[in-house]
């Protein structure tokens, strides 16, 4: 896997790329993409970094796996390509934004516009085999994305981390809460949301209120 990653991130993560586990991961991903349909497409694997350079990161949202349906995944967690129907979790995210901020849900489920405003949309696992959820888990991606979170936590200040659901909260355990703001809630998936663990968390207004208090531009959700 030729790591084509935005230059500020390449500097930050260069040491990860040279570790043995990343070489093994790279070989695994190359083999999978050669023999199976995998998502996102190769050029989108590192899109989260491409659209949100390290210096611009103000907010981090942690997902788990890329979508594994046809042409859904675009390299940003919870996001889909413009022409793709919004998955259930994303529909619930937009419902909460609509209720929280009184703004209409957008036509597209493509969250590139968030990334370009400084929202790092990071999946724990960056690739998946088509129609096989979790198929690329425990191959090294989690170690890599743990390193991403640690670098943000150590090298930056006043970043807002949104940890939705138990998996994200576990992954966020190494965040330095003395330097950053951490907001937790249930996951936006229907299973969690319909039990009352998602709706009403008001994370989107809380993010913007916090960013304004530290003199940063709020996110246009």
Automatic annotation (TrEMBL):
Reaction catalysis annotation: Hydrolyzes single-stranded DNA or mismatched double-stranded DNA and polynucleotides, releasing free uracil
Keywords: Cytoplasm, DNA damage, DNA repair, Hydrolase
A family per Pfam: UDG
Domain Uracil-DNA glycosylase-like: 50-211
Active site annotation, chain numbering: 65 (proton acceptor)
EC category name: hydrolase
Function text: Excises uracil residues from the DNA which can arise as a result of misincorporation of dUMP residues by DNA polymerase or due to deamination of cytosine.
Family membership noted in the UniProt record: Belongs to the uracil-DNA glycosylase (UDG) superfamily. UNG family.
Name the record gives this protein: Uracil-DNA glycosylase
